[in-house]
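agent> Task received from the user: take the single chain below, predict its 3D structure, and emit structure tokens. No templates, no multimer pairing.
agent> Plan: (1) validate residues, (2) run structure prediction, (3) serialize to tokens, (4) report one or two observations.
agent> Step 1 OK, no nonstandard residues flagged.
tool_call: predict_structure(input=
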Amino acid sequence: MNQQKQELDTCGCCEGVKALTPVPVHNQPGLSALAYRVGTHASFKATMQSALSKQSALRDLTTRDDDDPSIALLDAWAMVLDVLSFYQERIANEGYLRTATERRSILEMARSIGYELRPGVAAVTYLAFTLETAQGSPSSAKIGLGTKAQSVPGQDELPQVFETVEEIEARGEWNELKPKLVATLLPAFGDTCIYLEGITTDLKSGDPLVIVGEEREKEVGNEKWEFRRVSKVEVDSKNKRTCIHWDKPLGSRIPRVKPPAAGPKVFALRIRAALFGHNAMDWKTLPVSLRIGEKHPDTGVFIPGEYANRKKSWVDKKFDTDTKSINLDAIYSQVVLNSWIVLSSLDYEAELYRVKEIDEETVADYNITAKTTRLRISGEHIEKYSPRSATVFAQSEMLEIADTPLTKPIFGNKIDLDKLVEGLESGRTLIVSGRYLQSVKVAERTKVVRLLLVSSDKLRQVVLKSSDVLDVIEPPKEDKSKGIITWHLMDKDGFTGFVTAEPDDLILEQEKEKETVVGQSKLELRSDEDRFVSEVVELERTEADGEFTTLVLATTLQNVYLRETVTINVNVARATHGETKTEVIGSGDGSQGMQKFTLKQTPLTYVSASTPSGTDSTLEIRVNDVLWEEVPSLYQLPAEKRAYIARLADDGKVTVQFGDGINGARLPTGVENVKATYRVGTGMNGMVDAEQISLLMTRPLGVKSAVNPLAPTGAADPEQRDQARRNAPLTVLTLDRIVSLQDFEDFARAFAGIGKAQAALLWNGERRMVHLTVAAADGKSVDKTSDLYKNLIAGIDAARHPDQQVLVDSCQSLTFNVVAKVRVDSDFIMEDVLEAVFKELLEAFAFEARDFSQAVTASEVLAVMQRVNGVIAVDLDKLHFSSQAAVLHMRLPAHIARWDQSKIGIKAAELLLVNPEGIALTEMTVWH
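)
tool_result: status=success, residues=928
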């Protein structure tokens, strides 16, 4: 045999040529493409050439030149085989879910296991309607299903139509409710100011005030009164009131006495006077003749002086306890009967007296004579004063107490309204809007404030100082029975803890029977003036006291709001993206089975639902005005079942198919008797901004306008190729049943509107539970009040075992910054290369490319930057979390869901993405 071969190869023209096909095909698991070609043009040609010399009939064909007709024929067939093997490989790749590149291939394979590519889901929002309130306008209006409103498009945007999906009653008086902003507050312990009616109180710094209640009016010895000096006057011209401040808080006397509570009145003491004798000469400076006398000219005996033996009863002597009358140093006609006066001295701060009688009296004493005002007074402790030491504040003028502005922020589950509102039924949807409280500041005081920030385990505490600013982590908790509010705050160093504030936020110390005011620990509220937020809440019930209404919410508010900025929208209806269309799609023919019709407009709207897929179609088919039901499949349907299937094509068109009389009913014969009602519009186009939907296309009688206080949520575009590649097997893996931990994750990932999901088994303090971290399709958090969240929970509950507890939370979004110098090849344009590096970082560390709890390393960042064409070298200067100091970390961790001891709760998984504003790239100018 070998001898024969040697004889056939005597020309030597086939030396080195051998059979190269078929090429062995071996694919490693997990590849994104199959190698399925048994050869290429060159290998096919070489194989055929090697076979020429083995054919005895072709012994004389010794040429291998391409211009020979025989070799050209082989070359042509090699080309045919190359083309066939290429397409065979492409067909083989399209036959597997992992390797298919055409969306149509994935769509058909998914259908073979009962999975339909997700058609997208419409955005959901809430429309707040405003009714006309002009005279003669209807007092109420019915806002029905399908009321349309359109968005005002921005640059490069198209208008989007939203329609209400619920019917509500709206009233003009519900247009925009406000919380109670003022209240008639009695002077309370710790107060340092009071509001008075009017803006012409004629008070200035240093003027005296006295606050007296009915207790003191009825009982002479009652101590429920307060005397203060004005420290600051603030005029509120807009509200026609004046705020009067003083330094020493009410109730700070020792022993403690609460301020007057029964009918307190505020009096300005307009006159500052003195007692008769206050300007008398000191006893020691009186002439001797007045104190001792002089000798009689005849007898030589001393004659007693006018004030002899008066030393102990001079003007410095305190009044007797039973003294009932005092003389002022002049005539004061402004002092009237039953008015109040206050005596004050350095030795004894103040005492209040009531004027019972008034007379004018000329008094000669203390070597002085004056016309005086004699007052008979009722009071006590007159023995604390002397004519010289006492200062008299008189002419009490009553000032009306005004309503006090309420500064307490809005939080919790109750909102006091500023008026009586009737007719609000339980379960009604409300929208609360206002400026969000971002931080609090410890008020600046001249004295030290001992305010503690205590960790949750009470093992660590930080003493706060005046002017410290702390971020608000969550709404505070109020214990009305104890009268305290507990704030959860974070200081500038990142330490989190709790601050307990008493009602008056006043700290007092008593030292050696004297009071020392340490200071007031008032927390001043701080927020961004331009940052308004809104949230949807459900009304549980209302409470009324005959003058005001209190809204009791089913859940606590998620935010803390500055009271004066809050509005409550009551005329609220839920709305979804899409515009209703009605059309005739065809005529039924009883002689034909499996009739098909295509909807004329696209895209068909699907809304969020608690189904396993997370969507529900808005398509409604009626034949001869009789409603037919949409089903997943016609297979084995009863012959009389009026049903149809809807198939979404790759181009977005929807085809409706009916039965054949064996699997589902046939269409009855008729002319244009098949009608479709559906909505058009879906996907991320509906994710407009808050307050962008403001054009009413349907205007019910009495309705003036509508707007969306919140941005729409829950939208998702139709499922893309790579998403379907990942999600299609989930139908078979879960079979619409959740058993394992992986099932929870798979179910959520396949749910329309959910972009990412991660399940973890955690201990919640009492038992093991499944914690599911999710993110919306657009990368944002999933609001717990949104339809998407509620439908996801309902879908999971329907598929899981009832004994398995599950908690669903949105992920914690973290961002990191990158600072680097890039060495660019001199043949490239530096700006273009840096721009390409910037885009590469954004793409590599974007929401679509990262998973929950996926860390970022310096080596990974360098690799991403280095693969950009034109980059020679990279010097990574800084890699850090956006919220932390700018340093170079080799690794930035992202955690899975875990038990958080500091908050006594569960923290959701973290998603670490690049901060576009934190990428700083510069050219490397020094190169070694």
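agent> Step 4: summary for the user.
Residues 1-9, 503-521 have pLDDT under 50 and may be disordered.
agent> Done.
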